[in-house]
Amino acid sequence: VKWSTPEECFEAWKECTRGRPCDYTGLSYDKLRGGSGIQWPCNDERPEGTERLYEDLTFPTFPEICEDYGHDLQTGATSSEAEFKALSPQGRAILKAAEWTPPHEWARDEYPFALTTGRSVYHFHTRTKTGRAPELQAAAPDVWVELCAADAERLGVAEGDVLRVSSPRGTVEAPARVGQLREGVVFVPFHYGYWDLGDDAGPDGRPRAANELTMTIWDPVSKQPQLKTAAVKVERVT
Amino acid sequence: VKIGPLLAHLHELETELAAELRAAAERHRGEHDVYHQCQTFALAADKRVQRLDPLERCYDGSSEWTTAVGEGSDDLLRELRTLYLRAQEVAITWTMASQAAKALRDRDLLTLATECQSEPEAQAQWFTTRIKVAAPQAIVLG
């Protein structure tokens, strides 16, 4: 290992990208401090980066330069070199399709609601930064459960009532908001965990982390966690 | 004609596969991708059985399609199938060895494993080819 500081590490990592599709050998700490939004490839040829890729309609699908030979979208099984070569894309783009498959967990029976998780405009991820900005924290201080007017009426829930949302894996308790969702869907923002609640929040505090409800499974190719669907039940606590 | 027994055999194989996938999923619950993928594959096997069902009823499947080697007009076919499966077993085991060789940075073992993997794979393809030749006569006229 020839590096010991973050910048030396960055330099070594840059070298790994030389000649590759995401070449950023033209980047430097100075350039990164100077502005924002430098897009790869950024190299001797294009020192200011490249705003638009594939303008000449040539894609990195030559077997010698492609980063991998691709996957089956349904399972994530990798294609072999021979299969890729037989496809012979030669710089053309490859469009792949996958059949629709049901989510791993359906809303039914004991868990009749589909949960989806998402964001508030005021926060980023688990709020480790935005939760420390007083204005943002005040604008969206705590978790809520959102459901549509028809479901709220059916469950006898008014705005502000505390709801318990449970999946086979965990529970969230939070006040209700009646919003514009599809029937049968509940929304919980995922920003809220326990880091900022202090010691007394502990495991006995009101559970509020949306991803305690979601499944541990990921997209087979991108490995993106599938945090957007889970089957849940909704009960009124107070 | 042995198409009826063969379809009944397929039915049995698919059912066993689905059960094995589900059992494996439960045994490896902690490997979340394995768990879900095996469950998904099991559902697909169930669906194949459903699709097979109406065609299975068109043919008499009352006699058994034996997988034992040594007798019958389709003996060669069964033998070839067994060898195909053995060749695949050998190939995938060489794959395991080649991945381990990469981790060990053992170039000699990697070269050996890479070459030794492709041989049984090619042989399996030959068995596929030969099975295609043998199957119509053995199953339809046997």
Secondary structure blueprint with pairings:
The complex is a heterodimer of chains A (238) and B (142).
Chain A: H1 6-16, H2 29-34, H3 81-87, E1 113-118, H4 134-139, E2 145-148, H5 149-155, E3 162-166, E4 171-179, E5 185-189, E6 230-236
Parallel strand pairs in A: 1-5, 2-4
Antiparallel strand pairs in A: 1-6, 3-4, 3-6
Chain B: H1 3-27, H2 32-56, H3 75-104, H4 107-141
Task: Describe the overall structure.
By secondary structure, chain A is α/β, with parallel strands linked by helices. Helices cover 16% and strands 15% of the residues of chain A. In chain A, a hairpin with a 4-residue loop joins strand 3 (162-166) and strand 4 (171-179). In chain A, 18% of the residues are buried. Chain B is mainly α. Chain B contains 4 helices and no strands. Chain B has helices spanning 3-27, 32-56, 75-104, 107-141. In chain B, helix 1 packs antiparallel against helix 2 (32-56) and helix 3 runs antiparallel to helix 4 (107-141). The longest helix of chain B is centred in the C-terminal third of the chain and has 35 residues, at 107-141. Chain B starts with a helix and ends with a helix. The model of chain B has no long low-confidence stretch (mean pLDDT 92).
